[in-house]
Automatic annotation (TrEMBL):
<dbReference type="GO" id="GO:0005829">
    <property type="term" value="C:cytosol"/>
</dbReference>
<keyword id="KW-0238">DNA-binding</keyword>
<keyword id="KW-0413">Isomerase</keyword>
<feature type="binding site">
    <location>
        <begin position="31"/>
        <end position="38"/>
    </location>
    <ligand>
        <name>ATP</name>
    </ligand>
</feature>
<dbReference type="GO" id="GO:0003677">
    <property type="term" value="F:DNA binding"/>
</dbReference>
<dbReference type="Pfam" id="PF21196">
    <property type="entry name" value="PcrA_UvrD_tudor"/>
</dbReference>
<dbReference type="InterPro" id="IPR014017">
    <property type="entry name" value="DNA_helicase_UvrD-like_C"/>
</dbReference>
<comment type="function">
    <text>Has both ATPase and helicase activities. Unwinds DNA duplexes with 3' to 5' polarity with respect to the bound strand and initiates unwinding most effectively when a single-stranded region is present. Involved in the post-incision events of nucleotide excision repair and methyl-directed mismatch repair.</text>
</comment>
<dbReference type="InterPro" id="IPR027417">
    <property type="entry name" value="P-loop_NTPase"/>
</dbReference>
<protein>
    <recommendedName>
        <fullName>DNA 3'-5' helicase</fullName>
        <ecNumber>5.6.2.4</ecNumber>
    </recommendedName>
</protein>
<keyword id="KW-0378">Hydrolase</keyword>
<keyword id="KW-0347">Helicase</keyword>
<dbReference type="GO" id="GO:0000725">
    <property type="term" value="P:recombinational repair"/>
</dbReference>
<dbReference type="GO" id="GO:0016887">
    <property type="term" value="F:ATP hydrolysis activity"/>
</dbReference>
<dbReference type="GO" id="GO:0005524">
    <property type="term" value="F:ATP binding"/>
</dbReference>
<dbReference type="GO" id="GO:0033202">
    <property type="term" value="C:DNA helicase complex"/>
</dbReference>
<keyword id="KW-0067">ATP-binding</keyword>
Length: 768
């Protein structure tokens, strides 16, 4: 045996061992979550090497993420004792880059070709669209990028666009696609989608090259096969077509990339593609306890289009899946933070969990903001995987730069960031002029720009745009100085700067997410007294994160969590419209909701011992309460595997209905049926409506629920609900009495904080 090698076969079950040791021919491992597919695949690589069946470099293994590739490499190294000469192990893209570098000339490129990022791609497409005299406002480059990407995902080359899609991008799509590919060639560049498509093209057009690689890669292995798209499928079929030594593992119930062109049909077609393929089914789940597994199985059973399989575990029943409803998103984040802290000590009959053992998996990345803010406040270490942290995102940094300038007009870095964002026709030349004007007159960039505008030194479109920007910045600064509502100021800035419109015009898959994040940013503002305070908060956050090491809670999206596992998992935001997403419900129809349900299945099955699902009855968007219904997936959780937790604050002051409900139910162990979750949400909705609030206020009654930190913003902008003499409550200043009303502002004499002017929607009516 090789030194340092561990025994990689002894801890497999019979079916796994069968799959790992049947080395010749095609093998499909089709099995549910946590059944050890990835483990068996890794053992198979080790077995190929250890038995001398293949040299490491004759093995090609495709994983879904780079992280998964690294983990597999580590495990193979441990099982084989290999240090050097590892198998080819990586994502489709990573492997394709290597292949393409070797044969670039066959794709019309040089081997030192550059790979364009999304920004470069968009810029190039914009040039093409403008050259064709098409209005980029109506026909944004990002939309074209999405169309071209979807063609590349399906291996559709220029000149081969099907007639049914010839009218794409107002009929210009096919021609612009061809021109774009030509431009890329001229630039010795390719985009992300090209990496795979070029390799496939080379294989198809050059038999000798394909034959060489078929001889070379004698064994091919693919993890997460259910999420391959058409071009990846072609790529695999071409390579494995000769010897047919291919082992694919997947789970049709975990296919979650349909929106990116993945075709779950590939998995169903495997036996046809590789006649005589051995199909291995695994049914024993080694990851999750009984209740968790049963809950996941119950949810996925609601999907119609599935092969269907049974999963069982020899492990303990464990703890039921925990379900908890919250008043709003902030309370959800607060409760989760507290629960994580108690779980570190051991709570509710569970063992203590380390921070590294816990993860929060969200449907949409904007959900992370509330958790990040909360964790920073209580000093709970966390990491975000698979994307920047909230305040590091492009659109958030752009928006923050505007806010910074509104607060401090001298902030030159912020000015540089936004002067041509969104595009205003202020290119490098104009920006240089501003720099020179500022430096030679010892002014800030903004003042320099103002000087140029006054002296009309920048002409044309750019000049007019600069004048408008300088004007706007002046106005916004005034709003800050005059202490206008900072939330409104922020909204005004993003609106008037054209920044919102900029993303609205981008018809790409990620644009709605960016708009969501901007909404979320404005929401975050509401928790602060003014813009300045908010900016300080964020500056501190960004500073805090330097410290590395130590245990951390993981925060990531459900999509990024595929294939991973954690002892304790939190799944927040299970509300219709958020999860399943509104888009899936509107556009995807049944198919869309089924894909969301698979995502729910992926989420629950990441948990080993403890799974906590939560939802909020209200979420705030742009200062407006929006009530939401618990996710339909919650109804699909089998009751006997669910324990409903009672949130500390929900029943407390909910008035008669809430009170009686709280009294009748044993607080910790209500069954799902009794709890009538949706009913609660509806009551909460009534409670949250501004009209109801106003009525209560007029009647001089105390709001049914005592003001809590998280609920000090109620939209009352329509008309003031207050009259002089009303008692009010403000989050920061406490109780006080209304003295005068001016528009949407109140002059309030606070008991402790003195007299202040406050925007009406930031106070709550309080009892007299
Ligand atoms: P997913 O569908 O989520 O990707 P999977 O089928 O790839 O799951 P693995 O991640 O390979 O499953 O395995 C799940 C867990 O079960 C891992 O912790 C793994 O170590 C463990 N496991 C798998 N097979 C066995 C076995 N035969 N004996 C003990 N533990 C096992
Ligand atoms: Mg796996």
């Amino acid at each position: 045996a090789m030194p340092g090698a561990t025994d990689y076969l002894s801890d497999l079950n019979d079916a796994q061992r069968d799959a790992a040791t049947t080395l010749e021919g095609a093998v499909l491992m089709l099995a549910g979550a946590g059944t050890g597919k990835t483990k068996a695949l890794t053992a198979r690589i080790a077995h190929l090497v250890r038995t001398g069946t293949a040299r490491p470099n004759e093995i090609l293994a495709v994983t879904f993420t780079n992280k998964a590739a690294r983990e597999m490499k580590d495990r193979v190294a441990r099982a084989t004792g290999l240090v050097e000469g590892m198998p080819w192990l990586g994502t489709f893209h990573a492997i394709s880059v290597k292949l393409l570098r070797r044969h670039a000339e066959l794709a019309g490129l040089k081997s030192n070709f550059t790979i364009l990022d999304t920004d470069d791609t968009i810029r190039l497409l914009r040039q093409g669209i403008e050259a064709a005299n098409i209005d980029t406002k109506r026909w944004p480059p990002r939309q074209l990028a999405g169309i071209i990407d979807s063609w590349k995902n399906r291996a559709i080359r220029p000149g081969a666009v099907p007639a049914s899609e010839a009218d794409a991008f107002n009929g210009h799509g096919p021609r612009l696609y061809a021109e774009y590919q030509q431009r890329l060639r001229d630039l010795n560049a390719c985009d992300f989608g090209d990496l795979l498509l070029h390799v496939v093209t080379i294989f198809q057009n050059h038999e000798d090259v394909l034959a060489q690689y078929r001889r070379w890669f004698r064994y091919i292995l693919v993890d997460e096969y259910q999420d391959t798209n058409a071009v990846q499928y072609l790529w695999l079929r071409l390579l494995a077509g000769g010897h047919g030594n291919i082992c694919c593992v997947g789970d049709d119930d975990q296919s979650i990339y349909g929106w990116r062109g993945a075709e779950v049909g590939n998995i169903l077609r495997f036996e046809k593609d590789f006649p005589g393929a051995k199909v291995v089914r695994l049914e024993q789940n080694y990851r999750s306890t009984g209740h968790i597994l049963a809950a996941a199985s119950g949810v996925i059973a609601a999907n119609k289009g599935r092969l269907g399989k049974t999963l069982w575990t020899a492990g303990e029943e464990g703890h039921k899946v925990r379900l908890i409803g919250h008043w709003d998103g902030d309370e959800e984040a607060r409760w989760t933070g507290e629960e994580i802290e108690s779980m570190q000590r051991g709570t509710r009959g569970m063992r203590p969990f380390g921070l590294d053992e816990m993860a929060i998996l969200v449907r949409a990345s904007h959900q992370m903001r509330a958790f990040e803010d909360r964790f920073l406040t209580i000093g709970l270490p966390y990491r975000v995987i698979g994307g920047p942290r909230f305040y590091e995102r492009l659109e958030i940094r752009d928006a923050m730069a505007y806010f910074r300038l509104a607060v401090s007009p001298d902030d030159d870095l912020a000015f540089e960031r936004i002067v041509n964002t969104p595009k205003r026709g202020l290119g490098e030349k104009a920006q240089q002029k501003i720099q020179v004007a500022a430096r030679s007159n010892d002014l800030s960039l903004l003042e320099g720009a103002r000087l140029l505008v006054r002296t009309k030194q920048i002409g044309g479109k750019g000049g007019a745009a600069l004048a408008e920007l300088v004007d706007g910045l002046g106005r916004w600064h005034l709003m800050v100085r005059e202490e206008a509502s900072h939330v409104e100021t922020a909204e005004t800035i993003l609106e008037e700067a054209g920044y919102i419109a900029h993303w609205q015009n981008e018809k790409t898959p990620e644009a709605p997410g960016r708009l969501e994040n901007l909404k979320e940013l404005v929401k975050a503002l509401e928790n602060f007294e003014n813009l300045q305070g908010f900016l300080e908060h964020v500056a501190l956050i960004m500073d805090n994160e330097q410290e590395e090491g130590g245990e951390k809670v993981t925060l990531m999206t459900l999509h990024a969590a595929k294939g991973l596992e954690f002892p304790a998992v939190f799944l927040p935001g299970w509300e219709d419209g958020l999860f399943p997403s509104q888009r899936a419900m509107d556009e995807g129809g049944l198919k869309g909701v089924e894909e969301e349900r698979r995502l729910a299945y992926v989420g629950i099955t990441r948990a080993e011992e403890c799974c906590t699902i939560s939802f909020a009855a209200n979420r705030r968007t742009y200062g407006q309460w929006q009530s939401s219904m618990p996710s339909r997936f919650i109804d699909e959780l089998p009751e006997e595997h669910v324990e409903v937790l009672t949130p500390p604050g929900l029943y407390g002051g909910m008035g008669a209905a809430g009170g009686s409900m709280a009294a009748s139910a044993s607080p910790e162990m209500q069954t799902l049926a009794e709890s009538r979750i949706w009913q609660r949400a509806q009551e909460a909705d009534v409670y949250a409506s501004p009209g109801w609030r106003r009525m209560q206020a007029r009647a001089g009654e105390r709001p049914a629920r005592a003001p809590a930190e998280s609920r000090t913003t109620i939209d009352m902008t329509a008309d003031s609900a207050f009259t002089a003499g009303d008692r009010v409550f403000h989050k920061k200043f406490g109780y006080g009495e209304v003295r005068a009303i001016e528009g949407d502002k109140l002059e309030v004499a606070f008991d402790k904080a003195g007299t202040k002017k406050i925007v009406a929607r930031f106070v709550l009516p309080a009892e007299g």
